[in-house]
Structures are given as C-alpha cells and as structure tokens.
Design goal:
This protein is α+β, with helices and mostly antiparallel strands. It contains three helices and five strands; from the N terminus they run βααββββα.
C-alpha cells in the first residue's frame, strides 16, 4: 500500500466533525483507504474513496495519488441518496 499523507485541511476537518459529534480519526480514514466500497473519479484529477457506514450515509475521502503516496485532501460524511448513482 502506498504511503498515506494527511493534509492540514483534512486533519482540521476531522477535528471539526468530532466537535459536532461525528467521530472520525486517522485510523478510520486509513481503513477506508485500504478497503473502500468504491473509488470514483473526482474534480481536478482527484479520487474519492467511499465507504458505507449505515443505510443512509457513507464517508467520502477525497485524495490525490502519485507514484509513492496518496494525499488525503478532505473527508466528510454524506447522504447516500445524494450520490447513490456513484455507489
């Protein structure tokens, strides 16, 4: 597996989510990266790893990939209904 690097923004985003009651940490994000339900193409050559967390939601991890690493840009929960055609 390629090295996973967290951007400052992604770390701050996880802190904000935790403050609002949505518990997410680096270990969970790494697990999503290792075993996503789907990976789709995103904006500006980015990729999106998605993992279903319940009947209505999943986690989306936006990342950039090069030969040696995957850099996490951001992470957020999303309603499955909004992106269901991509899952």
């Amino acid at each position: 597996m390629k090295k996973i690097i967290f951007s400052d923004h992604s770390i701050e985003k996880m802190k904000i989510l935790n403050k609002h009651g949505f518990q997410i940490n680096k270990k969970a994000v790494v697990n999503i990266m290792k075993n996503p339900d789907t990976i789709i193409s995103g904006y500006k050559h980015r990729k999106i790893a998605q993992k279903i967390i319940d009947n209505k939601h999943f986690i989306r991890v936006i990342f950039m990939e090069d030969l040696d690493s995957k850099k996490i840009v951001t992470v957020y929960p999303a309603k499955r209904s909004r992106y269901e055609n991509q899952v």
